[in-house]
Amino acid sequence: xxxxxxxxxxxxxxxxxxxxxxxxxxxxxxxxxxxxxxxxxxxxxxxxxxxxxxxxxxxxxxxxxxxxxxxxxxxxxxxxxxxxxxxxxxxxxxxxxxxxxxxxxxxxxxxxxxxxxxxxxxxxxxxxxxxxxxxxxxxxxxxxxxxxxxxxxxxxxxxxxxxxxxxxxxxxxxxxxxxxxxxxxxxxxxxxxxxxxxxxxxxxxxxxxxxxxxxxxxxxxxxxxxxxxxxxxxxxxxxxxxxxxxxxxxxxxxxxxxxxxxxxxxxxxxxxxxxxxxxxxxxxxxxxxxxxxxxxxxxxxxxxxxxxxxxxxxxxxxxxxxxxxxxxxxxxxxxxxxxxxxxxxxxxxxxxxxxxxxxxxxxxxxxxxxxxxxxxxxxxxxxxxxxxxxxxxxxxxxxxxxxxxxxxxxxxxxxxxxxxxxxxxxxx
Length: 428
Description:
By secondary structure, this protein is mainly beta. It is 10% helix and 29% strand.
């Protein structure tokens, strides 16, 4: 029978075979002699000439331990067997890395960084937009710049609001520099009351000084004319004006003589009203001369104009027919300024005379002639603005007399804007 001798944990045999986690001991030769069983750190039962040994299980967690972030911790007993295996995360303190603390000190946090020196941000960097009045070292976004720029005044013709301030110039500054109220008050302190003093220097100012205290001023003022209704003496002169000027400028005697000469060299048509053999008529006489006097010689239509040199001009008088407008009838009757006489020839209804219309002139006459159509008609007269009125001598007629003619003569009174009745005839 073969024997196996063990020395200090070692197995002496002819050969050892490791198979599937076991140790197989070959004792060599046949004959059936050998170790039949084994115990302890290795156990087994002989199979023929072989004694397969199974190592005792010390660590029941076989596998791979350790990773990029951890290291294995292995416990080994005195026989060289691992009794436990665990892992420990790798933890490195910043101070354990060479130069890391110094490098971090040169960096700024992502949240609310505080830069130094001259930081540059890449184009397109997005930062938090601050309020328009933020006055700090925080980065300014384009939105902040646009909002802040809108609060600024332009360099050209700025329009300030609120209470703008500016540097105060020194007293006596005479430039285009902006003047503050402080400068104005400082300059005002240089004023003084002028009493028997000589004014000198560009910084001395005065106010509320009586005219009598200014040497020569009362005399100078006395020699001047007032702007309102001046009273000139001596021989005042004015510039020559154009003969065509109508702006109201003062003219001199030269222009006046030129204008009179031009007028007197023209031919004039002069209206003349007179009572002739056929009644009251208006005529126009043509005449010319440098200084005209006229007199009506007779009723034949001849008018004599005498000049200063006693020569005479005979002008043929042409009679101008009055402006007569006639209508048969109407209920509202309105004379106009282009009528000298207004005839109603067959009034067939009650009628109201409205205020005349048109451009009447002061003293312009108007004759109204009325006759009904055989039936008496009532007459009403507008007495309002621009209307008709009669005095105490007679009243305006309120009706017609059957088939009789009525004459009423009016004269326009511009001051009262009324047509005053100056004549009334009934019963023709």
